[in-house]
Amino acid sequence: MIRLEDTSGGAVSAAIAAERRRMGSPTTGMVLTLLIMADEDSQSDATSAAVTAARQHPMRIVTLVPRPESTVTRLDAEIQVGGDQGPGEVAVLRLRGQLAEHANSVAVPLLLPDTPIVAYWPGASPSVPSDDLIGRHAQRRITDAAAAADPISELHARKSGYIPGDTDLAWARITPWRSVLASMFDQNVGQVSAIIVSGEHANPSLPLLAAWLGAALGAPSEVRVDDGPGVTSVFLTTPDGNITIQRSDSRTATLIRPGFPDSTVAIPRRDLAALLSEELRRLDPDDTYASTLDALDTIP
Prior knowledge:
By secondary structure, the protein is of the alpha/beta class. The chain has helices at residues 9-23, 40-53, 103-107, 151-160, 169-172, 175-184, 205-217, 272-281, 287-294; strands spanning 2-4, 32-37, 59-67, 74-81, 89-96, 117-120, 140-143, 166-168, 194-200, 221-226, 231-238, 241-247, 252-256, 263-266.
């Protein structure tokens, strides 16, 4: 761990480069820069998850922690390169005092040249991420509606402020559900006439899954609340009978279809590192996510 106090973005970049030279490991092979805008409560988990994701996507991780309540204006940094942090680089920057309002000026010297930039807000996020001082630099912008005080309202804010390149971890959380449901339709199951998605209260993944299914199948879709955790079941009405996928734990679910024996399918609840890794696999706009946001208003 290298600690720099009362420093600058340029000095942090130079320190990272010097440590790379000392280790004999150049920055070639880095595929992106990840900018994390976090508070003290969320920065540790977000940075740790990004470090784990860097094992699949070698990157420079820059965690910016604004501290506007500080009476002193300065930048303090903690730097780690390689070693236990895997192939990536990590810089945790605390922006104290008035510097907290100028995160972009601190981040710019740390951006890797000729590589994509991804912005991630693990906690509170701007209403329009692409208009944020950090979001303007990024091709991909990741938010997490589940971290908001009112996740469902936050999800609708994501719809209002959507620009291609935006995504939300509430969407990544339902990828296993979408995979199982899509594979189920490899066989003819008939026309679906009604859809019910159940799960825990105020989980933004529920309306996203319901909206995706409703738009894809052309059927009315609704959300029902239970004790969770997460999404617990999907219920489809078809001409041949009802199809149910019921998850009773955090790993597997039971698929019940008319004319078939019950089967067990894997629908695990994944940790933050796995969700980030998924989002970093594609840096182009997610058109399916955009069309699902457009369908949110159809969900009671």
